[in-house]
Every structure is written in structure tokens, then in C-alpha cells.
Amino acid sequence: MNEPLEAVTGTSADGPVRATTTRVFLALAPPDEAKEELARVLRPAYAAYPRMRWNRIEDWHITLAFLGELPVTTVPPLMPPLARLAARQQPLRLALHGGGHFDERVWWTGVTGDLEGLHRLATDVRALVRECGVPFPDRPLRPHLTLARSRRGDHAATVEAAAGLAGFAGRSWDAGRLHLVGSNIGRGPGPIHYRDIASWAFLSGADGA
Fold this sequence. Notes:
The protein is an alpha+beta fold and about 210 residues long. The protein has 4 helices and 11 strands, in the order E-E-E-H-E-E-H-E-E-H-E-H-E-E-E. The protein has a 5-stranded antiparallel sheet. Strands 5-3-10-11 form a 4-stranded antiparallel sheet. It has a two-stranded antiparallel ribbon with strand order 1-2. A hairpin with a 2-residue loop joins strand 1 (about 10) and strand 2.
């Protein structure tokens, strides 16, 4: 469900905060069936590593382009060209697969399937955003879905958890929707939450989330 851009805010001790900027990224999202399948596999890890900072299942996503902190006024002009790009895009057949970690701190599951198409889509999305005059960090695409982060001084848990997921092979699914996502990071003491600002179906109308 899309959220008004103004809703991507947080709270303070004095009440709701009306943000002038929002942290934005473009992503694909697995369908509920794929997320539920992975969640079942992760149940032993939830119990074994309770101190890890787990991402909410509803926030699981595969980032295509991380745009960073943008003025809220910058975001609406991106929507029409992104909608047109999505309308020309064929769905991508993908699956979640295996596990790994970044710097012993971030635990993820990988992505397999039409990786060539995934990289091509990410390239197109990034080029379009730049054509719209929005600069952003140029980070290489490493397709993954972040599951959890370790707490300070407890990196061994991330390494162990990643090893335990090495044999995971999830069901295949069609990624059929492009998501423009905002987060409330830095806008209050609570956890990071992600919300769709907008999303657009690909050419066939398949829904990937």
C-alpha cells in the first residue's frame, strides 16, 4: 500500500515530526509466499540469536538504487518517469538463496535467477534518476535481502547465522513491481520502518509484493 510522502516521518517527545527530507531507495520485494517460506527457515535463528537486530519481514526488499537523504520536494518529479520505466519492464524470475554477511555485521540472504535482467534493471533505474538531476551514492549492485544486524561486540552471531543459511534454496517467483520506498531513519528513537511512497507494476501487470 502506498503512503503519502508526508507520512514518511517519525515522532519526537512533542509529537509527530513533519520531515523536510526522507531517506529514499528503489527496490523489488519478494511476494508474501517467498517471505513466509524464508521466515519459517529462520525460526531457529530467531530463537538462537535474540540479541540481533532483526529486520521486520514486511520490510524485506532487494535494493536497486539507494538514493540517500533527499528533500521531499525532489521525490514527486521522479514518479512519472519511474512509472513509465516500470511499464516497459518485463517481470524478473528470481529466488532467495543461501546466506552471507557483510563485515561480520550484516546478515543477508542472496538472490539467484535472472541476475542479468536484475542488473540491467538497476542500471536503467539509476540512469533515469540521474537524468532527473538527482545525484546519489554510486554503489555496486550486490543483490541481497538484509535479514539482521549484529549488536556491537557480538559479530560472531552474524557469522554463525550466515553459515546456517548457506543451504537455503527458496522457491522461484516473479518480481513484477518497482517500489519507491522511504524510511523514517533518524526521525525518532524507535526502529527503522520502511513505507512505499509509490509502486508500479511491470509490463505484464505481475505483482511482486
